[in-house]
């Protein structure tokens, strides 16, 4: 009798149910991250690939009327050069915006986790008030502690320093502090930039 009902109602194997739950949780985590990121004042742009992200980047630079970009990552610098955008890896306080990648995107509070691998020796307060972040969906994690653990495991040979999170400019209870930024996120589905 149960075999018959299984055929009618499509009983799934435990592995299929587990796969569905994992996929559904990852999807939910992505949606929750985006909602929290945006509610904290971040501006979110989903891009299918790098060429679409390059166009989005160009539009942001035009809208923000950017004259010079702080960028430390050679791959991101090459993208700025394609757009013929004035950029420098030296922070002198004159840059309008920073263009960085990140360690992780934290679902718990909608923040962006960065380290010395992205911002070198700079403190968060040294960065321009506007930041564009390049990331991919596989960088979305549930909490900062998960991010710290992943960094510890994946970079155990050379742990980065200066690990911190960056928030948008409307984090509840923190607006107006030097830790908040006008934050743009380019989430790129097919990205080869780490």
Tags for this entry?
alpha/beta, 37% helix, 194 residues, disordered N terminus
Description of the structure:
This protein is of the alpha/beta class. The protein has six helices and ten strands. It has a six-stranded parallel β-sheet, with helices on both faces. Strands 8-5-6-9 form a four-stranded mixed β-sheet. α4 (74-82) links the parallel β2 and β3. It is globular, with a radius of gyration of 19 Å. The termini are far apart. The relative contact order is 0.19.
Q: What is the rounded distance between the termini? A: 54 Å
Number of helices: 6
User: Can you count the beta strands?
Assistant: 10
* Sheet with the most strands, sense and barrel status: 6 strands, parallel
Helix content: 25-40%
Structural class: alpha/beta
Percentage of residues in DSSP E strands: 15-25%
Helix-strand sequence: HHEHEHEEEEHEEHEE
- The multimeric state of the shown protein is single chain
| Average predicted confidence as pLDDT | 84
What value does the Rg take, in angstroms? 19 Å
What strand line-up does the widest sheet have? Answer: 1-10-7-4-2-3
Low-confidence stretches: 1-23
Shape: globular
């Amino acid at each position: 009798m149960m075999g018959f009902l299984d055929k009618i109602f499509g009983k799934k194997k435990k592995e299929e149910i587990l796969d569905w739950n994992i996929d559904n949780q990852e999807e939910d985590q992505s949606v929750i991250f985006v909602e929290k990121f945006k509610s904290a004042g971040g501006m979110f742009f989903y891009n299918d690939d790098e060429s679409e992200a390059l166009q989005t980047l160009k539009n942001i630079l035009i809208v923000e009327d950017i004259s010079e970009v702080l960028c430390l990552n050679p791959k991101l610098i090459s993208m700025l050069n394609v757009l013929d955008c004035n950029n420098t890896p030296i922070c002198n306080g004159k840059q309008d915006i920073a263009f960085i990648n990140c360690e992780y995107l934290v679902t718990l509070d909608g923040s962006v986790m960065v380290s010395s691998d992205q911002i070198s020796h700079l403190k968060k307060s040294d960065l321009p008030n506007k930041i564009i972040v390049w990331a991919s969906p596989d960088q979305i994690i549930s909490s900062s502690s998960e991010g710290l653990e992943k960094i510890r495991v994946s970079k155990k040979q050379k742990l980065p320093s200066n690990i911190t999170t960056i928030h948008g400019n409307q984090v509840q209870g923190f607006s107006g502090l030097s830790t908040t930024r006008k934050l743009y996120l380019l989430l790129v589905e097919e990205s080869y930039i780490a």
